[in-house]
Design a protein that fits this description.
The chain has eight helices and three strands. By secondary structure, it is an alpha+beta fold. Strands 1-3-2 form a three-stranded mixed beta sheet, with no helix packed on it. Helix 2 packs across helix 6 and helix 3 packs across helix 6.
Length: 191
């Protein structure tokens, strides 16, 4: 018998993903007790432009519906949904929620515990991603909790973001550099 269906979503870094709404299903038998076996079905899909609407419609969570209905742009919806799923995955790994798609559980985390988890998530992001990416990873989480009327002192959390770094070598090319580039590009074996 099928007891539970778990969804596992793969993340991609590009907005220009190949449009594929193919979902793969893997079944695995889990033994419970001596004579009962439970078939767990794991659905794996990639969130892309083609299937974002299908994924959003398949979620029955009211908290998730509030979140997605507040986003007008489809590209932003894809990016923010992926960002929220990454946060939910981290919360699942810590045992705070049961599954990655337990959005109602995510929205009902007690406020003090939530603040601690958000601080830890910011610290983890600072260690894992470029400093300029940290706010981009937190905006989907902030929108999710704002849309679900969860009071968090976001101003204090924003102060924890690292200082933005300007990328180096952002100056215009000098005339000498352009001449050198032109010479190298148009150089033939005869020259």
């Amino acid at each position: 018998r099928i007891d539970s269906e778990k969804s596992l979503f793969l993340f991609s870094n590009s907005r220009n993903d190949i449009d594929s709404s193919e979902m793969q299903t893997q079944s695995q038998v889990k033994t419970v007790g001596q004579d009962k076996a439970i078939l767990q079905k794991e659905v794996s899909c990639k969130i892309t432009k083609a299937n974002i609407e299908e994924f959003c419609k398949s979620q029955e969570s009211r908290a998730f519906k509030r979140f997605t209905r507040s986003i007008k742009s489809n590209a932003t919806r894809i990016t923010y949904t992926r960002g929220l799923l990454v946060f939910a995955y981290e919360m699942q790994k810590k045992g705070v929620i049961e599954t990655v798609t337990s959005f109602d559980q995510l929205a009902s985390i007690p406020q003090k515990e939530l603040v601690i988890q958000l601080e830890d998530y910011i610290y983890d992001l600072i260690d894992k991603v470029h400093v300029n990416t940290v706010p981009c990873k937190m905006y989907p989480v902030e929108l999710f909790y704002n849309q679900n009327d969860v009071m968090v002192n976001w101003k204090r959390l924003h102060k924890m973001f690292p200082e933005k770094k300007k990328t180096e070598n952002r100056n215009a090319y000098s005339s000498e550099q352009i001449t050198e580039i032109h010479r190298l590009v148009h150089q033939t074996p005869r020259n």
